[in-house]
Amino acid sequence: MAPGQAGAWGALGPLLWGCALALQGGMLYPRESPSRERKELDGLWGFRADFSDSRRRGFEQQWYRRPLRESGPTLDMPVPSSFNDVGQDAQLRSFVGWVWYEREVALPQRWSQDLDTRVVLRIGSAHYYAIVWVNGVHVAEHEGGHLPFEADISKLVQSGPLSSCRITIAINNTLTPHTLPPGTIQYKTDTSKYPKGYFIQDTKFDFFNYAGLHRPVLLYTTPTAYIDDITVTTGMDQDTGLVNYQVSVQGSEHFQLEVCLRDEEGKVVAEGTGGRGQLQVPNANLWWPYLMHEHPAYLYSLEVKLTAQTAAGPASDFYALPVGIRTVAVTESQFLINGKPFYFHGVNKHEDADIRGKGFDWSLLMKDFNLLRWLGANSFRTSHYPYAEEVMQLCDRYGIVVIDECPGVGIVLPESFGNVSLQHHLQVMEELVRRDKNHPAVVMWSVANEPASFLTPAGYYFKTVIAHTKTLDPSRPVTFVTNSNYAADLGVPYVDVICVNSYYSWYHDYGHLEVIQLQLATQFEAWYGAYQKPVIQSEYGAETIAGFHQDPPLMFSEEYQRSLLEQYHSVLDQKRKEYVVGELIWNFADFMTNQTPQRALGNKKGIFTRQRQPKSAAFLLRERYWRLANETRYHRSVVKSQCLGNSLFPF
Ligand code: GCB
After folding, report:
1. How far apart are CA 103 and CA 360, in angstroms?
2. For the Glycoside hydrolase family 2 catalytic domain, which residue ranges apply (predicted)?
3. Closest Cα to atom 4, ligand 1: which residue?
């Protein structure tokens, strides 16, 4: 749906070029190779928020036609970053509507002169709706704030004497009942209380709707005949690893493909030709999760070489894809990786930090991964939207198992279960699977979090989304995350694994830690009894202000968070012997939310503060996770030696 088409966008959306561009082609991560170059556009961009009442001045005055500074004042805005918390302007922090980004780029001469080179602009994430122009020409539109999109800009940059290009990106953060996540714009028309035209953005999810260019923006090249997509699935036959590959090519009908698989030492272990096939790897090294094997996260490299005939003569393209050989399966009561029971002991995260908001940052990412490994966490859920591709790559490399969640959060309005929303949800799942299908770390798709799926249309809605996701990727189980209150959840019959959130002794019976064990046991028995499917405790936790102490424990103190966790753990320890296959704490770190009387500068259920310092519960969880790793180990000696080697083993 394009802004402007639906009434709900109201005054905020312009009337533009119709719907978003249809999905097209593959979405391979841009990697350098002998045939491909990259140019990163991170840094300071020109920026302006359109504060006009209609929010449409930028379109009326065609700000994309000329350098942005010529149509008014601009700010320097870092990319990647959310724009909200960078400045001192309260109005910009809570701005709803269109903001404009611009960057002039000098191109290598070859890119603008060699007609056999294809130049592609890739935007990692622009939240929420984006329109892109290059040198004033419209090149792309995209709906959805958490997945990448691209535009082939070769013709534009190769058509004139210019060796530079001006990239303009307009981004609208308005959420409607049909966006993912949904939201509504509420106009306050009582002029005795609100100024004329006053509105607010209302959402039903618990994190701040940060906006801007959140992830890297870059230009990259390929030859005009190029490897467009690669799909890999893996299996095992005894000790032989099976790598099924499929490669699609664009720009030529006459081509040859050669593939080879290299091990971590660079030795070729299997070779093939053609657009699809199966490689067999005798005595394969499997991709194992962190703490499950002495050499977790083993990655091969699938090298694909294209030789094509084009109008201009022969052309070659090379692409190397990291591949982990592993299997995933689900039984009535177990989650199996490589045929062994896997227990998720991990966290739920957010992309969130001081100042940068949801902006990607390497230092933050490494700190988070170092903390995950310190904690002994083997997994996380990308609550409540897909994370940056660089995060997923690190999960592959470190063996951190991922439940990959789409932005289906806060779906509670009946209008959000209609066909418009459904079609968009299906499209988002398609974009997500296309982007993340080759990551061995991704073991399950989550299509939503706590939708109001006890409403009648929700049953059909989720049946359709789950079935579609299984068609897109038959190799992984699918879940969505329900809530212990949603006993009549109409979506659960369709999932492979039941993920359930509960906040006993926090949102109910608050202060009464003594009822947790009974209520939690009842929850597990009810869900398993009804469906006989493995269950994951996908959220539990307590709001905790770092430095608040009270014993006996009272709510919001570090002691209360610890005690609540301990009550949960005692039931989890019984049920994991039966059918509970995981526990994910809410949350890894404190994070920003909307302002409400329930939130003191954001959600404080982190076991780390927003600055990534441990609360007391982090140490409790660390002890538990390392103990679980040792109990569910593949070989006892393995975990020990691995962790000693990394100076991580805490005992
Ligand atoms: C939930 C939601 C999560 C919230 C959390 C809470 O059930 O899934 O987004 O942040 O509860 O802390 O209330």
Report:
1. 18
2. 328-629
3. 206
User: Whose CA is closest to 483, among 586, 564, 413?
Assistant: 586
Phi, psi (degrees; rounded to nearest 5) at 112 = -95, -10
Question: 588: Cβ below 6 Å to ligand 1?
Answer: no
Reference 99, options 121, 122, 126, 80; nearest CA is 126
Active site residue 271: no
Structure token pair of residue 501: 């959130």
Atom of ligand 1 nearest to the CA of 383: 9
| Residue 18: pLDDT over 80 | no
Helix, strand, coil in percent for the chain, rounding step 5 = 25, 30, 45
Binding site membership of 501 for ligand 1 (Cβ less than 6 Å): yes
Residue entry with tokens 């929010």: 55
The helix/strand/coil state of 193 is: coil
650 within 8 A of 623, measured Cβ to Cβ: yes
Phi, psi dihedrals of residue 240, rounded to the nearest 5°: -95, 125
- Tokens standing for residue 488: 């009549």
Q: Cα dist. 429→170, 288, 462, 470, 609 in Å?
A: 24, 26, 12, 10, 32
The active-site residue, picked from 102, 143, 150, 450, is 450
Residues linked to residue 328 through DSSP beta bridges, in sequence order: 337
Q: Provide the 10 A C-beta neighbour count for residue 636.
A: 10
Which tokens in the block code for residue 164? 């530079």
Q: DSSP per residue over 90-150, as a string? A: HHHHT--SEEEEEEEEEPPHHHHH-TTEEEEEEES-EESEEEEEETTEEEEEEE-SSS-EE
User: What is the β-pairing status of strands 126-127 and 164-172?
Assistant: unpaired
What the block records as the tokens of 411 is 């779906």
* Amino acid found at 271: E
Q: Are 384 and 358 in contact (CB under 8 A)?
A: no
The DSSP H or E segment spanning 574 is helix 558-575
Separation between Cα atoms, residue 477 and residue 486, nearest integer Å: 22
In the chain, % of residues over pLDDT 70:
93
450 in contact with ligand 1, CB cutoff 6 A: yes
Q: Are strands 313-323 and 328-330 parallel, antiparallel or unpaired?
A: unpaired
DSSP string spanning 467-517?
HHHHHH-TTS-EEEEEETT-TT-SSGGG-SSEEEE--BTTTBSTT-GGGHH
Q: Is 543 helix (H, G, I), strand (E, B) or coil?
A: coil
Name the token pair of 345: 């002991």
From 54, 41, 52, 48, select the one nearest 106 (Cα to Cα): 41
| Ligand 1 pocket member 405 (CB < 6 A) | no
Query: Is the entire prediction scored with pTM above 0.70?
Result: yes
Alpha-carbon distance of 500 to 371, in angstroms, equals 25
Model confidence pLDDT, tens digit, residues 253-298: 999 999 999 999 999 999 999 999 999 999 999 999 999 999 999 9
Amino acid 633: pLDDT: 65
What is the three-class DSSP state of 619? helix
